Amino acid sequence: MKLLRNIVMSDKRHKSGTLLNDLREIHNQIPRWVLILLALGLAAVVVTRITQLIIMLIAAGAVAYILNSVITAFERLGMKRSVAVILLFVFAAMLVIVTNRIFIPDLNQEIMNVYARFPEFSRQIQDALLLTAQSSAGKYPFIESSIMKFVDIVFGPGGFLERTLSASEILMQATPFIMAFILVPFFVFFLLKDWPGAMRRVMGWVPASYVETTISVIEEINILVGKYLRGLAADCFVIGALASAGLWLIGVNYPLTLGILSGVANIIPYFGPVIGCTVSSFVALMQYRSFDPLLNVIVLYIVIKLMDDLVIQPLLIGKGVHLHPMLLVITLIVGEKLFGIMGMISGVPVVTAAQKTAVILLEHHRDKQRRESTRSTIKLNPVKSPVRPI
Amino acid sequence: MVMEILKRYFSWALDKTMESRLQTLSDGPLFKGISKKLLRKLLVDLIEKKYAEGDIIFHEGEVGKAFYVVLEGSVKIIKESNPENKTLHVLGPGSHFGELALIGNTSRFASAVAEKDSLLLIMYKSYFDDLIRRNNAISTKILLNLAEILSDYIHRNQPE
Are B84 and A377 in contact (CB under 8 A)? Predict the structure, then answer.
C-alpha cells in the first residue's frame, strides 16, 4: 500500500520533475529484494526461451576455455593474441582434414557398418526380446507382457524407431547440430580473440572497493572450472580407453566406437555410465543372441565406474568440484529440465562456482561492515616519508 | 632463439604492449633477476584495471588479498590512522605495493589512493599460491626479492 501511495504521489509530482527523476524515485522506493526477485524471474523466462543458444554458448565457452591455454602459450612467446587465435584455427582445420583422411577411416568404417546394419540389428534385438518373452511366458506372465509392450512401443508400426529414423525427423533433429557445428566455432573464435579485452572492460566497470573481491571470484572460478574441464576431458579419455580395452577383451563387436561413446557419455554425472553400459549390452545381445555375455558387460562397466569414482576422478578432478549428493541430484534434475544433457554436464561446475562466489561475497560484506565501523576519512595531505612494504 | 626469429621476420605478429609492460615489470625491485621469458608467463595471467583520480584502491586495516604494480599514473600510500592522513609515499610507473598480501593474511598497514588516473596490474593471492605450486622458478625469485625488500626496510629503519 505504501509503495502504491508513493507511486501515486510520484505521479502527482510528475509535472514539476522529469520522468527519469520520477522513475528513479520509484526505483528507490521498491525494496531491493523485490528488484532482485524480478530480475531473477525475468532472467529465468529469457533463459528458458533461448535454451538452444545458451547450450551453444556453454559448449563454446568450454571449448574456448580449454583452447585458451594454447593461446596463452603463444602469447607467452610474445605473439599477438589475434594472430595466435587465427593460427590455432588454421591448425585445427588442417588437423580435422588430415585426421579425417588418414586416421579415422577405421572408425568411419565401423560407424558406417553400424548404420548400414541398423535394420538388421533392430530385427535381432526384436527377435532376442521376443525369444525371452516366449521363454518366460509360462512362469512370469508379467515379464512377457512388459517385453511385448516394450517391443510394440519401440519396434512396432509408428513406434519410436520408425519415428526417429524417418527422413523428416532426422532432418529436424539434425538442424540444431548443423547450426551448432557452424555457430560454436564462430563463438569460440570471438571468445578466444576478445576475452582479455572484455575482461578489461568489465574490470573498468567494477567499483574500486570491489576490485579485490571481483578478482577473488574470477580467480576461484578460473581455478575451479579449469580443474573441472581438464579433469573431465582426461577422465573421458581414460574411461573411453578402459571401456574399449575391456569390450575388446570380452569379445564384443565395435569396441572402439562403444569405447568412445562410453567416454563421451561419461561426461554426464550418474547417467553417463548407464548409457554406455546399455548401448554396449544391446550390441552384446545382438552379437551373441543370449543374455549370458550381458553379465560380463555389466560387470565391466561396474568395475570401470568403481575405478572412476575411487581412483581416476579423485586423481584427475580432485575434491574441489564435489557437491553434496543431494545438491548434486537437484542440480542434475534442474539442469536437465532447463538445458537437457548440456544442463546436466554444466550444472555441477556452475553450481559449485555459484557456491564459492556466494561465500566470497559474504566474506566481502562482513569485511566491509567491520571496516565501516572503524573507518576514518581520507584527506590527501602529502608528507614525505620512507617507503614501507604494505 | 625463437624470439629472435619472431622479432626479425614476424614483428607484425608480436604484442608490443606486452613488451613495454615487460620492461616496466623487470625494472621494478620485486621482479629483478627474473628472465623476460618467465615474466611473460606471469604477465599473461595478471589482471589490468584503470583507476580514476581519487579512487581508493584499498583501505588500511583491510585483509590484503592482492598485490599491485603501477603501469601508468601514480598512487599515494596514506596512513589513515594518522590524524593528518600522513602520505607515506607517492608511487609512479614500475613501482609496486600491497606485496605483503602475497605472503599471508595480514591487514593492510596503510591505504592506497590513485593520485592521478592510473593503470594498475593486479596479482591475486590465490594466483600467487597457485604459482608457487606450478612454477617454482618465478615464485622463489619473487619471494627472495620480497625478503630483500623487507630486510632493506628493516636495516634502514633500525635505530642508530
Answer: no
Q: What is the DSSP string of A256-290?
A: HHHHHHHHHHTTSTTHHHHHHHHHHHHHHHHHHSS
Beta strand B118-124 pairing with B111-114: unpaired
Q: Does A81 touch chain B (CB under 8 A)?
A: yes
* Å between A211 CA and nearest CA of chain B: 8
Q: DSSP strand E in chain A: where?
A: none
What share of residues in chain A are helix, strand, coil (percent, to 5)?
85, 0, 15
Q: Which chain A residue lies closest to B5 (C-alpha atoms)?
A: A77
Residue that has been written with the C-alpha cell 541398423 in this structure: A118
Residue B116 per-residue DSSP state:
S
Domains in chain B: ranges and CATH: 16-156 (2.60.120.10)
A196: CB partners within 8 A, 6+ apart:
A81
Chain B residue numbers touching A72 (CB-CB < 8 A): 44-45
Instruction: Copy the grid coordinates of residue A177.
Output: 547440430
What is the 8-class DSSP label of residue A166?
S
d(Cα A80, Cα B18) in Å, to the nearest integer? 9
One-letter amino acid identity for A200? R
**Cβ pair A382:B112 closer than 8 A:** no
Contact between chains at A376 and B51 (C-beta distance less than 8 A): no
Contacts of A357 (CB under 8 A, 6+ apart): A217, A220, A221
Greatest Cα-to-Cα distance within chain B, rounded to the nearest angstrom: 59
Closest residue in B to A220 (Cα–Cα):
B126
Q: Which residues pair with B69 in a beta bridge?
A: B96, B121
Contact A188, A67 (CB under 8 A): yes
Output the pTM of the full model. 0.65
Spatial strand order in the sheet of B47-51:
B47-51, B118-124, B66-72, B96-97
Instruction: Quote the minimal CA–CA distance from A37 to chain B in Å.
Output: 31
Q: What is the DSSP letter of B11?
A: G
CB-based contacts of A348, cutoff 8 Å, min separation 6: A228, A269, A321, A323, A328, A331
Amino acid at B72: E
B99/A78 Cβ within 8 A: no
CB < 8 Å to B114, chain A: 208
What residues of A are in contact with residue B151 (Cβ under 8 Å)?
Answer: none
Q: What is the pLDDT along chain A (390 residues), one digit of tens a residue?
A: 454 455 445 444 544 456 777 777 777 777 777 878 888 888 877 776 777 788 888 888 888 888 888 898 888 888 888 889 999 999 999 988 887 777 666 766 766 776 777 777 777 777 777 777 777 666 777 777 777 788 787 777 777 777 666 667 777 777 778 888 889 999 999 999 988 888 888 888 888 878 888 888 887 788 778 778 778 888 889 999 999 999 999 888 888 888 988 998 888 777 788 888 988 888 887 777 677 778 889 999 999 988 888 888 777 766 556 667 777 778 878 887 877 777 777 787 788 888 888 887 887 777 777 766 655 444 444 433 345 566
- CB contact (8 A) between residue B40 and residue A75: yes
